[in-house]
Amino acid sequence: MTKFDEATAAIRVDETMYDVCLDPGYSIGGPINGGYLMAVLLRAVVDASPHEHPVTTSVQFLRAARPGPARVRVEQIKTGRTATMARATLLQDDAAYIEALVTTATLTGAEPRWTDGPSVTMPPVEECVRLPDPRPESGMTLNAQMEMAFDPPTIGWLTGEPTGRPEARAHFRMAEPQDPDPYVLALAVDALPPVVFSAGERGWAPTVDLTWHLRALPAPGWLTLIGSGRLIGDGWFDEDVEVWDSAGRLVAQSRQLARVGRG
């Protein structure tokens, strides 16, 4: 079991309730990363389902969860031969922090009948760059949990040279050696810096709603994350992310709506 497996573990209490402990190692300056929180929820949902994989997840982030003990309540909505639908709620002090609707199914790993390619061609890992380590006082502990190598133009905002377009692209893998699985993909779809940074915005950009789909079981190795946006306005922005595995297959895709950065 890896550190990530331990950090996302869900222990069954009864027919509907699971105990979890939210790890402070996945914080982004205080709040806990939404992808990590989704992985925690999905551990409980899959354990309660007759099916093995979370093929679609839609999450509403109601409040910023804090590290420490929490519970996940799972309510089955419909169970069928090929798919099960459930509602999952992350609770702290009996208050709901996240509400999610999740459909589970069992993927076979079969080759796709048809697929297109990535929307953008990424340079190889050795031609990409790492972000500098955050200062300890920043509380950005998430960075230590994963390795990311960025397409250089998409981090021009670091030196005051954003591209002017909402975009973010990087190669991704866990810092501790681990083959990617659906729970790692839940983290990956929310791992990029907000795409609005590249458009010239700054600050914490809280996600309000995020939906992602598991399209295939990933091959071992690096993942490629391609993030983009369509509209920034009225204090809101959208972010789409494609996740491609080392075999060149689309394994996950997501869309989220978030507030433009504050502070």
Automatic annotation (TrEMBL):
InterPro entries: ACOT8-like_C, Acyl-CoA_hotdog, HotDog_dom_sf, Sec_Metab_Biosynth-Assoc, TesB_ACOT8-like_N. Transmembrane segments: none annotated. Residues 126-260 form the Acyl-CoA thioesterase-like C-terminal domain. This is Thioesterase family protein. The lineage of its organism: Bacteria, Bacillati, Actinomycetota, Actinomycetes, Streptosporangiales. It comes from the Bacteria. Residues 25-106 form the Acyl-CoA thioesterase-like N-terminal HotDog domain.
